[in-house]
Structures are given as C-alpha cells and as structure tokens.
Amino acid sequence: MHRHRLVPDDQARELAARWRLEPVDVALAALGQPAPRRFGTDGQTDLVAAPLPRRRIAAAMLLTDPAGAMLVVEPTYKQGFEIPGGVVEDGESPRTGAAREVTEELGITRTPGALLVIDHVPAAGRRTEGLVVVFDGGQVDDPATLVLARDELRSYAFVAPDRLGEYLPALQTRRALAALHARAERAAVYLEDGHPTGETPPV
C-alpha cells in the first residue's frame, strides 16, 4: 500500500477492515482525493474524521479602559485571573466564541475587531495542546456596564500593562502583552507558548 500523509498504514488497515474497504480508499480519502467508498456502510460515517487529530481552541478578547489598562477576570472555578474568553464550542468559529464568552461573562455585547494573536499552546501536565485566538474588543468606557456572571466570575480588574504579571500566569502575561503590542502596531502576531516566532502579517 502506498504511504500517505494523514493516516498511518496501520490505521488505514484498521479502518479498511472495520468498514470493509480497501486501504487505498482510506488513504485517498485522507488526502482529499475522490474515493468511491469514503463513507462507511451506513453512508454517513466519514472515515477521514476518525484518525485526524483534534485540539482545543479558545478565544479571548482584549478590552481596555480609557487609560489603557487591560481588563482581566477572576474565574470562580480556578485560582488567579485571565483574559476574558473561553473554549470555542463545536461548530463555532473563534470569532463567534469570543463574542459569546464576553456576553456570557461580562453582560456586554461586543463585536470582535481585528485579530491580534494566534498562540499555539503545547501540552504540559494536565493541560492539553491547543490554540488560543485573541481579538481586539476595544475600549470599556464605563466599568458600571459590566455585569459579571457570578457563577463563573468572582471579580474583575483593569490592570496597567506593567502590572499584568502580578495578575496573570507567565504564559498569559506574554500573550496579553503581545496582544497589546499587536493592537498598537496594527499587526497580528503568531506565538508559540506565548513567544513570538516567524513573521507578523498586517491587520
């Protein structure tokens, strides 16, 4: 059998046996090529989806006050503060997820603006591998408009950039500062574990 990029040979053989296919059909389907028997015997089950990797995606929004201090929130379910946002749900885009999380957590409606950060976060300990996407949420002129979801958030704070390290873990501090810099430079940045790498495309 020809080797292919997306499905290892042993997985292709296993899927082929399970769905009564030829291994080459699995290989072709994984590569996006026409395969006469790409789907299972039920006509619905996509044989490509099962072996492809999945990773967590989270979306957040950069919100600041008129003085440039950054909004951070304190969840009820863990220690410390973080940037407003959360996990993107199945079938939801990161942009939609960021808007939903801000509405649910803070009681305000914001349309995500420019993309600021894409951060690849490697697995570490109990943390799974994931991607974190940060959008510009603009300015909060009146903090009184914030209505916290008390089952999710204990409190919030507007923090000056040079004090973010007192509130956020090191990884999130790097990401937050990168988002502020991206907003100022009008250029989105790609990060790995919060560290810049490669070129930054214009916003």
From TrEMBL:
It comes from the Bacteria. Residues 53-181 form the Nudix hydrolase domain. Its cofactor is Mg(2+). One of its GO terms (molecular function) is hydrolase activity. Keywords: Hydrolase, Magnesium. The keyword Hydrolase applies. PANTHER family: GDP-MANNOSE MANNOSYL HYDROLASE (PTHR43046). This is NUDIX hydrolase. The lineage of its organism: Bacteria, Bacillati, Actinomycetota, Actinomycetes, Pseudonocardiales.
